Each structure stands twice: as C-alpha cells, then as structure tokens.
Amino acid sequence: MPSEDQFKKIISHAKEFGFIFPNSEIYDGLSATYDYGQNGVELKNNIKKYWWLSMVQLNENIVGLDAAIFMHPITWKASGHVDAFNDPLIDNKDSKKRYRADVLLEDYIAKIEGKINKDITKAKKRFGEAFNEDEFRNTNPNVLRRTDEINRINEKMKAAFEDNNLKAIYDLIVDLNIVCPVSGSKNWTDVRQFNLMFATELGSVAGDASTIYLRPETAQGIFSNYLNVQKSGRMKIPFGIAQIGKAFRNEIIARQFIFRMREFEQMEMQFFIQPGTQQKWYEHWKENRIKWHKSLGISNDNLRFHDHLKLAHYADAACDIEFNFPFGFKELEGIHSRTDFDLKQHEEYSKKKLRYFDPELNENYIPYVIETSIGLDRMFLAILSHSLNEEKLEDGTFRTVLNLPAPLAPIKVAILPLVRKDGLPEKARDIMKTLQINHQCHYEEKDSIGKRYRRQDAIGTPFCITIDHDSLSDNSVTIRERDSMIQERVPIAELPAIIDKKVNINTLFN
Ligand code: GAP
Q1: Fewer CB within 10 A of the end CB, N or C, for the chain?
Q2: Which residues pair with 241 in a beta bridge?
Q3: What's the pTM?
Q4: Does 264 contact ligand 1 (Cβ within 6 A)?
Q5: What is the pLDDT of residues 166-196, one digit of tens each?
C-alpha cells in the first residue's frame, strides 16, 4: 500500500476503533490537538507502564518524579528557552504556507538519500548474492556524487545553524532551488525565528512580571528538584530521575496527526554523572534505548540513529532514534549529552548551590547529565503504524489486524458467549470475574462469533474466549489466538496461566 494511503488508513482506523479522536470535533476540531479514546488510553497507559518498568523499577539507581507543569518563570530564562527555543521559519509568498527552514533542508537531503537507496536496491537485484553494499557505496560514481552533495549541504547547514546565521540558511534554500511543495515556486521570505513557548498570566495581574509558561519539556522540573531527590533519597552518582508528563509547544507547522502536536506527553530521564564520563554514559543510554524499541518487535530496518548536526544550546553530543513512520524516517526519541549546562544556569539564576558532594572523590561538583527523551504520542504512533496490517486469509477474504505486542494491547481477553441464552452469558461472566482482576477484559454477546473475532482483531486483542453449550458440562472453552487464529479447547482452570504467559509485561524482556 502506498505510504500516504497507509497513513490515512491508520488515522481512520484510530478513530473508528476508539484509539484517537480529533479534539473538539463537534466544533470542527482544534488543529494539532487530539484526544485518546477508550482503547487509545489503555494502549498509551501500557506504553507508559513498560517505560516506567524498564527505566525506574528495574534500575535501582533511577527514581521517579511528578513535577508541576507551571514553574517559576526564571526557570525558562535560565534554561535558555526564553531566548533560544525558536524555530527558523520561512514563508512561501505564493502559497502563503509556512515551513521550518531546517525541515525544508532535511527533506531535500532525504530525497537525495532516497535516490541513493534506489540505486542500491537496483544493484542488489542485479548482482544478487554477490552484491557488496559497502563496496558499491564506495565506488559507484552516482552514489559518490550524491553522498558528496549531502555532505556539502550538511556542512553548510551545520555552520549556518551554529552561527544562528539566518541569511546563510535562506541562501542555502535558494541555492539548492528548493521549491514550495504546494505552489512549486521559489518565492521565499527571509528566514525568521519564532519562540515556541505558550505564555499565560499567573493570578489576576497582567504584565511581564506575572507571565508564566506552560513547560515546553518536562526536563526542567527534574533539574530544579535534583538536589531534593538526591538528598531525600540519599542518591549516589551516577543516578537518574525519570518523569512522564505533558509538555506544550506552539508548533507553527503542526501536522502529521499525533506526530507533531501542540500539547503532547514526554517520558524523560535525566542521568546525573561525574564530569568527564559523559561519552561512556551517552553510548550506554543509546544502546539501552535502542534495545528497548527492539524489544517491542520493531525491526532494525525501521529504526536508525541520526546524529544532530545542529546541537541544541545545552548539548555537547546528541542523536535521535528515528522510526520509519509512513511518511519516512523521523525522530522518535532524543538522547542528549546535556553537560552541566542546565544545573550551572540554575545555580547562576537562583543563586543557590546545586553541587553534589562526591564521597568517592571527596569533592563538590556540578554533575553532567545524559538525557533520554521520548515522545509518548510518537511512540504510540510508531506502535500503531508498525502493528496495523491487512492480511489475506486462506479463503481469499481479508482481515484487518493490529499485531500489537500482546502486553501493550488495550484489551487482553475478549469473553464471548456463543449465544445469549441457555446459561452461557452467566458462565461467561463467571470466567470474566476470575480474569479481570489481572487483565483488561471485554465482554460481548452481540453478532456472529466471526464478526466478534474481527472486531477484536482490529483493536489487537490477543485472546478471544468462546463459551459454548459444552462449556456448561465439561468446564472447557475455546481460546483463539489473534496472530495465528489457532483455536484450542482448554479447561477453564488453565486460562489464567495460558493468558499470563503471553500478555504479562515480563515477556517483553525475553
Ligand atoms: N528535554 C529534551 C527535549 O524536549 P526534544 O527533542 O525537543 O528534546 C523530545 O523532544 C521528544 O519529544 C522528541 O523526540 C519527540 O518524540 C517528542 N516531541 C517533541 N515535540 C513534539 C511535538 N510537538 N509533538 C509530539 N511529540 C513531540
């Protein structure tokens, strides 16, 4: 299926099956804002649960935090967000469309990469087993020319962004003949900076003094509490603080469904370390986090690292874990070596000492920080797009199935009495009572069993249990597994163990 069609299918499936609704739909919606429906909220909670388990529960030196969304306004001056949390924007005068200048350039590079990949795929087909990709990349004139071009653009981009040289960014867009995807013209305005923070007033007094911001990242709540946590928890470096919470950004070009929203959720962890050890821990967290994504069944082909060319104001190294969304490889998670920038800044602005006394070194210092920061909504979209499949069955018909990792599924077990009479509903509800204390279950007696199976496939339910007349006498039921569609007759007493073996979150660590 072409990727654009696939993306449309994901969006309509998400709405039809209660995962994601457009916000304020009865008033024609509010752009780039979405609500999670009855199945969406379960899937989202399960992703959070898995992240928390992996990051907090299984790491004895990482603890949690839940800081407020509002923070003292000086926080954002100190963190650099008031002065530097900007997007470089450019408008096309003909289409009146606004773009992020860096995204226009990155899309241009992605097109060249696409051409290289096409050449490689063609050559692979031609040479078969004998094909050596590295050799091809290093010798094929077309690939070499294109790789050179990418490197040249990257260098210019890096220099322009590091110097905050908006004119150089504009010149690069013009020199590369980049056209507006809507109007096809090169009639661009200058590049300008736009601050992304939402501001509001605290209390009833208006004016600069009472301006506060909706946090654009959860990280600053961690930094401002780092000593509270360290002292009250008697934490020793290296240690981490993890948090899940809402963040807000006035994105100019909010698009691509829940990929870029104005209100979204982050799962962030700041890992506090000795200065000088940042390279080691940066590599450690890169490896740890990519493993986490793979444990959810996402294949190597759909994940990659992308090193940042334009380093944020706080970082000495940074990369993204990118996922192959239906609209191409895009950032899913960021791993940043934030140095001591944030704590140093807070020390300076607050005039409070934020140093850690290291008993091993017998000295005080401001810790360095490695951050892992993943967008929960983007993770949700990655899981959804990775799992939604259209399958051709043996009889030639099709089924839509959401092959979610079983522990993340919104509903783990559907309880389906074959008919709505003869004591089957009562028996079914008794079974449900024994299972629902451990698992999210769903009871349904309407429609044919085939239709009910299809509805459960579409929301990713790993198990359907059918209760029939024999169940009343032999205390057995039919259990159907979502992916294989295999149906087995099993004693009711064995259900908890069979289900738990597959849906328990522990299975993700195998
Ligand atoms: N504390 C560091 C930080 O906030 P970031 O790269 O700006 O870094 C981290 O954001 C993650 O948050 C991203 O990788 C992405 O998954 C998610 N994210 C950022 N902006 C978003 C938006 N507008 N909508 C949805 N998710 C977003």
Answers
A1: C
A2: 63, 270
A3: 0.86
A4: yes
A5: 999 999 999 999 999 999 999 999 999 999 9
